[in-house]
Amino acid sequence: MQAFLRAAELMKKKDELLKVWAEQIRDLSYDIEDSLDEFKVHIESQTLFRQLVKLRERHRIAIRIHNLKSRVEEVSSRNTRYSLVKPISSGTEIDMDSYAEDIRNQSARNVDEAELVGFSDSKKRLLEMIDTNANDGPAKVICVVGMGGLGKTALSRKIFESEEDIRKNFPCNAWITVSQSFHRIELLKDMIRQLLGPSSLDQLLQELQGKVVVQVHHLSEYLIEELKEKRYFVVLDDLWILHDWNWINEIAFPKNNKKGSRIVITTRNVDLAEKCATASLVYHLDFLQMNDAITLLLRKTNKNHEDMESNKNMQKMVERIVNKCGRLPLAILTIGAVLATKQVSEWEKFYEHLPSELEINPSLEALRRMVTLGYNHLPSHLKPCFLYLSIFPEDFEIKRNRLVGRWIAEGFVRPKVGMTTKDVGESYFNELINRSMIQRSRVGIAGKIKTCRIHDIIRDITVSISRQENFVLLPMGDGSDLVQENTRHIAFHGSMSCKTGLDWSIIRSLAIFGDRPKSLAHAVCPDQLRMLRVLDLEDVTFLITQKDFDRIALLCHLKYLSIGYSSSIYSLPRSIGKLQGLQTLNMPSTYIAALPSEISKLQCLHTLRCIRQFDYDNFSLNHPMKCITNTICLPKVFTPLVSRDDRAKQIAELHMATKSCWSESFGVKVPKGIGKLRDLQV
């Protein structure tokens, strides 16, 4: 089923029927996973009572499996009936490539206006890297990298078209748009046409006509031979895959050219740029400075600084819009073009409805395509990981450990030989960073990324994609959140409530940011959430009470539980031992004095953080051993008292309980059996 989904993903944007079919397959796969999880829980139960109940439960599950088999047969026959999933022909590749190139051309035209604002320093720095005056030595590769919409193509195009810098110094030059897929023979023909002239290509094809079918090697041998003694400048715009660069480099460029030739590559992928570039010739294009971003927006809306200074409301809106655009040139120019058709008094209304405008307004198509192009190019295992980011509020700083832990709990992370699940999850995180889909925010001393952010505009479009894919429900409280039948993930931002009709029994993840939702007034984990895997309450602003968690053990599929700093919980129920799949238990601020012995039964638990509220002022780092009353050796240590980097050797053992000579015990006592949990990291 996953293979069918991957095949359908490539074609569904051009076939509405296939899109519907793919959604049915996805919902069916979710239902099958739910049934398997539920059956596993019942099988693992060992009590006599449960053994008796199992007979009835097995009968119920057997009926569900029979129904699922019928649904599988139906969707399979539907594919056969309508021939929905077909092999992707070479013609389809060309079609997809021209579609991608249309997107590139439209975006480049929009951003090209930005070269007048804030690009002069970037142009100067890139020209220094290119070093146009060095007319000898081997060819060098310079990479321009950054997220979509920053103006990589516009900057490179401005340099490419410079008579003084390029045309005068490089007799042969070519601009090649690589995009996500390309036809190899057509690419080589285009390079010959631009580098050597149309007549050279015509003459070559005429010589080959009637003798052989034109193959890649015919064009390659001719191009390499002709470029051996020529100085060339080539831009490979919008490179996505390292394999494509390796092929082009091998098949198109001579190895012994010593004329100081230059190749400029534009890409969104940092890792690819570093592997392609010569030495350290990677230019990271950044966002516009605030003043430049404001100037660009004013220019696009046919306003000036005097207009803004004389109108405080306009000044406020300009700053809000620029902040919303995240100083991204394409966003500023695209949104500015729409604002130019409106009165300043209408700007605020447009701003408030920007998320919905991004979905439906044809004038904002370039922005949508900027994001969907990157999303469509993600490998299948990264797509749900990326859409999952739509759960978090706008401009939210997302912790790496939190995100990866949730991915693992959701089953998004696929095991790899020789790697822990967490290592694989972190490789997913780093890949999204390298692909410029998310932005690094805070970096640790060792250079490891601790937190990330998602650009506001990208988040809005990601929320739109999530809604279309029926992936995440974000209740708005204004009647706009149409509850779809099979929503699996829900996130409340504030005290919003969702419409009736939501099937809580299939919800896999629940996250709350801000106030208590009206839908969960009585308890944050109601009995209906029987398939819940993730319960994230790390950023609630209301008080989480003991009552909220008295029935936590009913969530038998729970794998991730995180409670924030607003908590009055004083004990964990002993029934928590029933949560056999629990992987992460994060309670950074509670009144819990001791963990129940049943914690030691949680064989899947790998992350445990439990801190009792107390005053750190009375703890002395000069005599840490005097304060430790219970220690256990575990592979990794987290402590609120000493930073990981400065931790002394004597605190290289986990302490979950502290007792000082100035006060009573402030720590959390752990049961002796916790040492049996060998995978635990605390």
TrEMBL record:
Quote one Gene Ontology molecular function term: ADP binding
Q: Name one Pfam family in it.
A: Rx_N
Indicate whether Metal-binding appears among the record's keywords: no
* Repeat is among the record's keywords: yes
Domain named Disease resistance N-terminal: residues: 1-48
Q: In terms of domain of life, where is this protein from? A: Eukaryota
Q: Which family does it belong to?
A: Belongs to the disease resistance NB-LRR family.
Q: What is this protein called?
A: NBS-LRR
Gene from which this protein is expressed? piz(t)
